Structures are given as C-alpha cells and as structure tokens.
UniProtKB/TrEMBL annotation:
GO terms for cellular component: mitochondrion; nucleus. This is Si:ch211-141o9.10. Residues 1-33 are annotated as: Disordered. Belongs to the AP endonuclease 2 family. It comes from Oreochromis niloticus (Nile tilapia). InterPro entries: AP_endonuc_2, AP_endonuc_F2_Zn_BS, Xyl_isomerase-like_sf, Xyl_isomerase-like_TIM-brl. One of its GO terms (biological process) is base-excision repair. Pfam families: AP_endonuc_2. Residues 59-315 form the Xylose isomerase-like TIM barrel domain.
Length: 332
C-alpha cells in the first residue's frame, strides 16, 4: 500500500490518464461520483448523535462510499418528529458529497416486530414502520432495511409471514415510494427470514413488489447455514438466492464476519477476517459483479475507527486496489 501514499490530487490525474471511464471529471465534488467507476460502494453503519446529518459527516470522515444509519432512538416507540431543518441539512450534505440515495440504507428500529402474535406489539410495530418510511421520505431516501419479525414461538411461520406482509402492505399504502428491504436473519429464536424461502414468502404476499427487496447479511446467512467460508461460497449463496427469490430483489449487503460457527443460528458479528467466515468470502464479494452498485455495509465491532475502516477496505481488495485507492483519494 505504501506506493499509494502519494499526493491525492496527483493520483487523480494518473487515474484519469489510466483510462478510468469518468476520468474527465476532475471537480472536487466529482470524487464520490468518480467512485462509481469502481461499482463497489463500501461503507459502514454510522451514528446520528448530535443530528441526523452527522451520519453523512461520519461516512465522509471514514472515506466510505455508502452508509447505514438509524432514523431515531432505539429505545422508544414514539419519537419526536424529525426536524425539517435537520432533514434539509442531511439532504444538502448528501447531494453536495454526491451520495446517491440508492447507496444509503437506513436500518429499522430493533423494537419493531411486524410478525408479533401480540396484537398491541403488532399495531405499534406497524405504526413505527409507517413513521420510519415517512422519515425516509423526508430525508430523500429510497431504501429502508428492517428485520422481518418473530413468531415468538406461539404462531406458525406462515401466520407470522402473513402478519409481516400485511404490515408492509399497510405501510406502503400510507407512504409513497420507499422500498422496504427485508434483512435475512440468523435463525436465532423464532425469527423469520433465516431461510431464503421465508423471505420469498413475504415478498409473494406484498402487493407492490416494486417496493420490496432484500438485504443479505453475511453473518446472518452463515449462522443460518449458508456456507460462505467454502470456496465459491458467495457465488453459491447468490445462485441459491437468485433461484429462490430473484436477484432483482437484492438491494444491499451487510458485511460482517461471524463469531459463531456455520449454522449456529447466533447473531454475533465479528470484524472481517477474524471470524468463522474468513477473509476469502469478503474478497469474493468485492470481486462479484452481481454485487455492483449496491451498498455494502460494515456492521462490525471495529467499524467506526477510521484507520481500521481504511485498512479493512484495503484488505478486502489488495490486488485490484480500486477501493483503497478511492479511500486515499477521498482523504483531504
Ligand atoms: Zn439488521
Ligand atoms: Zn445486518
């Protein structure tokens, strides 16, 4: 990596002459747009303490090209309305910095269980889903990622799937345009969505299928039994996903190694390369063309340290160099 430590402006010119497709774009703000030539958008889940726009600033500091964020407190069902000035500031920063809404993936509240057999919890979850989608609209965002739900072991998976789909249909009716992105689960407890066929069952029941998608979390997939540690494991998982659900529904990836072993059903994230999945799966991801142009989001314990993030991105693709080079370029 040492030969990449030269002046950033110079690198840009070299890249332009090296035949980058969008090389003629030398504007300051073009940096992130230029990033599109790599087609891989790596970022992390970042905090919103101090104001929702802080998420954009944190992502910029880290040198990410995509990010995830919560839309409010994780402790409360009823939250104060999103401040319009803060939302405007968020949107302004995103457009200034060239972030496409398709590369920003808000994460739903952990309180929600849209599959809950308890009527009061279901009602509150459905209301929170509507509230969060409205927040996305106010922020100019197009995707919203959440955990499908849990049967709590007292209703069947099919009944749970019905509830989840009906909450989604209701929320779609109440809000415009935002795509609800179901996250695959680790299979912990009675959660639904560990198996691709369960995600497909939910999608099948959604009336507006242009507004539903999937985010695949690598830790959850591995814990649910998809062997990403095997050679070609990522390709095999995507093939299976394509067959059972359809790649057109894949909107994002959560990049997490796993503290638990294959099929352990535990939702325990680990830093990339330090867990049971191992670095080779993540290299496969970075080199997999089917994962172009979607957000690849780190939710690992060490993700918020800038240097760690840079090193992590560099480790993911040491040969092609695209991501680390872009990381270098984006540092001012
Ligand atoms: Zn999640
Ligand atoms: Zn995740």
């Amino acid at each position: 990596m040492s030969q990449r430590k030269r002046g950033t402006r110079k690198r840009k010119n070299e890249d332009a002459s090296a035949g980058e497709k969008e090389g003629e774009d030398t504007e300051e703000r073009g940096d992130r747009r230029k990033n599109r030539a790599t087609k891989k958008y790596i970022g992390a889940h970042v905090g919103i303490q101090g104001g929702i726009w802080k998420a954009v600033e944190s992502c910029m500091e880290m040198g990410g090209s995509s990010f995830a964020l919560f839309l409010g407190s994780q402790r409360s069902w009823k939250r104060p309305a999103l401040d319009h000035t803060a939302a405007a500031k968020f949107q302004e920063l995103c457009s200034q910095q060239g972030f496409d809404p398709a590369h920003i993936l808000p994460h739903g509240s952990y309180l929600m269980n849209c599959g809950s057999p308890k009527e009061d919890v279901f009602e509150k979850s459905q209301a929170l889903l509507v509230d969060e989608l409205s927040r996305c609209n106010l922020l100019g965002l197009s995707l919203y990622n959440f955990h499908p739900g849990s049967s709590l072991g007292t209703i069947t998976t099919e009944q749970c799937v019905d509830k989840i789909a009906s909450a989604i249909n209701y929320a779609h009716q109440e809000t415009p345009s935002v795509v609800t992105v179901l996250e695959n689960m680790s299979g912990q407890g009675s959660t639904v969505g560990g198996k691709f066929c369960e995600l497909k069952s939910i999608i099948d029941r959604v009336r507006d299928q242009t507004r539903v998608g999937v985010c695949l979390d690598t830790c959850h997939a591995f814990a649910a039994g998809y062997d990403l540690a095997a050679e070609g494991g990522v390709k095999a998982m995507l093939d299976e996903f394509d067959q059972e659900v359809g790649l057109q529904y894949l909107k994002a990836i959560h990049l997490n190694d796993s503290k638990g072993k294959l099929g352990c059903n535990l939702d325990r994230h680990e830093d990339i390369g330090k867990g049971h999945i191992g670095i080779s799966a993540f290299r496969e991801i970075v080199n997999e063309p089917r994962l172009d142009n979607i957000p690849l989001i780190l939710e690992t314990p060490g993700r918020n340290q800038n240097q760690w993030f840079q090193a992590e991105a560099a480790r993911l693709c040491p040969d092609r160099g695209a991501i680390p080079r872009i990381m270098e370029e984006m540092k001012d």
